[in-house]
Design brief:
alpha/beta; 50% helix; Rossmann fold; five-stranded parallel β-sheet; single chain; 5 strands; 12 helices
Length: 223
Amino acid sequence: MCQSRTNGGKRLEEITRIKAVIFDFGRVISSQKPESLFRTYEDDLGLAPETINPIMFESQAWRDALIGRSSAREFWYRIGPALGLVSRDKIDDFRERYHADESIDRGVLSLIRQLHGRYKLAVLSNSPPGLAQWLSDWGILDLFNVVYCSGDEGMVKPQPAVYNSTLRRLGISPHEAVFIDDTIGHVKAANSLGINGIWFANAKQLRRELDALLTLKKDSHAK
């Protein structure tokens, strides 16, 4: 367990001004669904409690979608029978319901809008192909300079090449970036490359830690 969610401890003279902020998508930009909603899904599908997420996200179908071997729609068709959905029409109905229940974290979106124009912004996500379209549907694609979707690229976090590719497209060095993710292993992987990392818990915590980090960097740069 980290002592702090930020990777502090660097001497001030070693710190360079931050130029970009990189966000994970799932459970960071998009809100974490409440456990009660998953229980409702399971009740409606006739599944045992706490089984829907393992069925969906510990499957080979999900791993294939994350590296672009199948589309998001194909993923649903592959796992549908395990959810008790016996036809493509029923799978499509549930897929649309599941997607409609996704929502933006309004606190994170407010922070992104405040950073827009002051810093380069990126999304770096392990997601099936088509994340840019999702962002466009939500009306936020234009806020980001770079969108790295693993399903479109064929590589997933925490592979170093994923982070390096995002940095290269942003035109920055590792120490000039902040990376935000709700998975601690992904944050540690970024840290190991010299990227400043914040382990996401909620929008309020993110605002506090990001503000402290950016202020520290700015003050150090001015000295």
